[in-house]
Amino acid sequence: MQITVDMTLCESHGQCVFAAPEIFSFDDDRLVHEASPPGALRDKAEKAAAVCPVRAVTVSPASPPTAS
To answer: SS3 of 23, please?
Structure first.
């Protein structure tokens, strides 16, 4: 899974941090997140996206590896 946060939309309400502290946190008042968390955290990631009041968090399937 891939987590994306649109930082132009994010207003640092912190609802994602409460919903999924394993994925989201604050660092010096800036939201940080794990971009590719383990699949076992999918439910928490989706809840974090759902509770974001400005819909800045997106959860999508993991990108397939590209051939080199």
So the answer is: coil
Kindly report the length of the chain: 68
Close Cβ partners of 12 (under 8 Å, ≥ 6 residues apart) = 26, 29, 30, 31
d(CA 47, CA 40): 13
For residue 59, what are its two tokens?
Answer: 């959860």
- Written as one letter, the residue type at 68 is S
Which residues are 19's β-sheet partners?
A: none
pLDDT tens string 11-49: 999 999 999 999 999 998 799 999 999 999 999 999 999
Residue 37's CB is within 10 A of a number of other CB atoms, namely 19
pTM of the model: 0.86
